[in-house]
Every structure is written in structure tokens, then in C-alpha cells.
Amino acid sequence: MAIDLRSDFIARPTREMITAMTRAAELPGGFGPREDTTVARLERLAADMLGHADALFCPTCTMANQIAIHIRCRPGESFVTEAEAHVVTSESAAAAALSGAMPRLVPARNGALDIAATAAALVGADAQRPRVGVIVVENTHVRSGGRVVGLGHMRMVAEIARAAGVPVHLDGARLFNAASALGVPARDLAAAADSVAFNLNKGLAAPLGAILAGETDFIAEAVRVRQMFGGGWRPAGVPAAAGIVALETMVGRLADDRARARALADGLAELDGIHVDPEAVESNILLVRPGSATPDALIAALARHNVLVLPFGPFLRLVTHHEITDAAVAETLAAFRTVLSGVDL
Ligand SMILES: Cc1ncc(COP(=O)(O)O)c(C=O)c1O
């Protein structure tokens, strides 16, 4: 079987999740959008873990992000974020198409928004300049290679947002990886935002699904918007059952994924023909820049050695998850060593 490092969403559910899904499939499904008992258990657990009043099970994190933007922005309004945010680069311009909302981009470093520029962007709406409906912060930040935005920075954003009366949405697709890297509970990061989205099917290894959390009224409205966006999935007890196991059993082990990403980076840093900065590996993602070989040639050669990695602009992207064991790390390093020695390139 291939060692698949292209993304953590590819990781298969654990045996315990499969058992839980089988059991849930035998329960009667709930009829109304909030009536399924397994979904309700997942939503309560997620809300409690984040310290928010309520939570909603969504098919994807893209949908959870876009529901939040839709609730916060009327057509013609804007949301403050940065050019490399997933909501800007990778959600098919959904904010424009579904909500008529325009991104207002501020400078940022590895996902951390420039505070002065963000504060300045929040004021001054007038006949020409659109009102800002929400600030979107991403943590961990995927395009910088899983960099982690610190708690202090998250709190600074929350402070200036509160002062301006603008809510904050946290795109925490990999929120628990960020919390693990910072050594804080996820609820500390979630407290710096008015709404939070995270994936159950990335590092947490559920087969699918995401959570949107927030205030009671916000989630009540989110139920309506989710339906409008086609996400009123019923009955969703089967994937929700895996989501419960994901939250109960997979959060604590994310430090292992980080350690293995770092071990990969340390090993790769010793090889010629490739550049990687182990210090930049803060969570479960590493970006590797090939020297003379093109990313495509290197990826094809690695695939012949059973190692799958993703092209990511000028980089190769490697993402660790629960299926990437110490042995898989060793095999991956051996494949890179062979390929970079020129034998198979
Ligand atoms: C930061 C970030 N936000 C949102 C998403 C979207 O997640 P989904 O694939 O569940 O829509 C991703 C997916 O990779 C992501 O990395």
C-alpha cells in the first residue's frame, strides 16, 4: 500500500470509528434538521470542547466557512482576511458567488494578520467604502505549510475586532493541530473568535464532516443557510458517530503527527537536491523545495517508490496523519534518498 502524504483528509477512519458508524446505522435516523440523536451528541460535544454555545455538523469546512461569511456579510459588504487564506484561494470564489461579499486583504505573515492594517481596515465605511462584516483568521495556516498563529496574536485580533464591533470567524480546519502545537486547549483559541469551523476528517481522521460553532442565534441562522447551500444532510448519524470518536480519541495523538512531520523535515534537510527548513514545521505539514529536479519529476519518481506527495506551487507538500507511522517516515526518507541520488529520476 502506498504511503499517502498528500493530505490528512486521505487518512482512513479508525476501527473504533467504523464500529461506531455501524452501530449508528442501526439507530432510527432523526427527521428534522436537528433531530438526529447521534448528530446532536456530536454537536453538543463539539460545542463544549470549543466553549461555544452551540455547534452545527456540516459536510465540509468550506461550507462551514461560507455559512459564517453569508451570515455576517450582506451583498456588497466585505470580509477582512489575507491573500493566502483558504477562503480566498481555494473555495471557488464562494463568498462572491453565494454572498456577494468581497475580500478586503491585509498583509499577513504565515497567517498572522498585520494588526495595524487590520484595525485600519475595520473603520471608515462610508458611501464608497464597504462595511466589514467579519474578519476571517486561519489557524493552522495551510498555504504557509501549517504555520501556527499564536494565542497572543489571536487575542489581539479579537480585541481590535471587539472594539470595532466586528465579529471574528476562525477557519480552524486544523484547529486541534494548532492547539496541540501551542500546548493549549482548543477552547482557548476558539474563545478568540465569534464563530469557529473545523474539520473532523483531516488530522482527526473521521471519514467526512466539519463543525461550525458559535452563539445560539448564529447557529440557528446557520441551520437555515446550511439548508440553502445544499448541506441539510439527513439523517447524518453515521458520519456523526465517527465524528464523536474522532473528538474523543484523536485529539490527544496529534503531537505524534507533529513529531513525525518534524522527523521527516530533519531527515530531508540532510539530503542534497532538496531544501526544507525544519524550524518552519510547526504542525503536521511540511513544504519541501526541490533543487534542480522539477516538482512533477520528483513526485512521479517518488510515486514509483510508493510514496505519494502533492505538488504545491514550487514545493512538494507532505502531510502527516495517523496512518503515517515511524516506519512510514523511515520508508519515505529512504525513497527520497534513492530518488535524489539520481537512480530513478
Ligand atoms: C484552512 C482550510 N480551510 C478550509 C478547508 C476546506 O475544507 P473542506 O475540504 O472540508 O471543505 C481546508 C481544506 O484543506 C483548509 O485547509
Account of the protein in words:
- With 345 residues, the protein is α/β, with parallel strands linked by helices.
- It folds into 2 domains: 12-249, Type I PLP-dependent aspartate aminotransferase-like (Major domain) (Aspartate Aminotransferase, domain 2), CATH 3.40.640; 253-340, Aspartate Aminotransferase, domain 1 (Alpha-Beta Complex).
- It is 43% helix and 17% strand.
- Helix 7 links the parallel strand 7 (132-138) and strand 8.
- The mean pLDDT is 97.
- The protein binds pyridoxal-5'-phosphate.
- Pyridoxal-5'-phosphate binds at residues 60-62, 65, 86, 138, 142, 171, 173, 199, 210.
- The CATH architecture designation of the largest domain is 3-Layer(aba) Sandwich
The level 1 CATH classification of the largest domain is: Alpha Beta
Strand order of the main beta sheet, please?
A: 2-10-9-8-7-3-4
CATH homolog superfamily of the largest domain: Type I PLP-dependent aspartate aminotransferase-like (Major domain)
CA-CA gap between termini: 21 Å
Number of helices: 14
Helix content: 40-55%
Q: Biggest sheet, in brief?
A: 7 strands, mixed
The unreliable regions are: none
| Average pLDDT rating | 97
CA radius of gyration: 21 Å
Annotation, overall tally of beta strands: 15
Number of domains: 2
